[in-house]
Amino acid sequence: MKRYTPKEFLKDFKDLPMEEILSKYYDKSVVFSDSFNWQYTWSNWMSNYVNPAYHKNSRLEFLKNFGLKEEGGFNFDDMEKTYLVLKDYPLLEEDVKKFLGVMAGTGFFKETTVSHWIKSLDWQSSRRVNDKFRKSFLEIAKVKNGQNYIKSTLVLHDWWRILR
What we know:
The chain is mostly helical and 164 residues long. Helices cover 51% and strands 2% of the residues.
């Protein structure tokens, strides 16, 4: 696995076009920092939170892992409805659709729809975004390794903190 230092990443993030950054740092064979391994973090989210939420016999485990005391703190109907809406977006990878469904279950999309949110430029609102990455979720998803960037961004987004 190729490793890059944070200093290398920050320099390239400033100097390179988005497509080159995605190619260099968001390929699955790359770890760009020992302090943040997006692949490990994404895998952890999927196995401990997202996948259990989609299996009816694992939902209590999901609630416990997610730090929710009872079922009323999460809306499984909203999760499933959002996931079904996202089926109309074949560009998006299955695990990304499921992750967005879990976000919906927390009430994240109460002020907007997931369809609107993935087309907006403000989906990364919790982070300061470099202008070259100020693109919609769907625009970035179309670029090679763009969904890996999306995954790394979703796990850093503070949407889930509203539940804590």
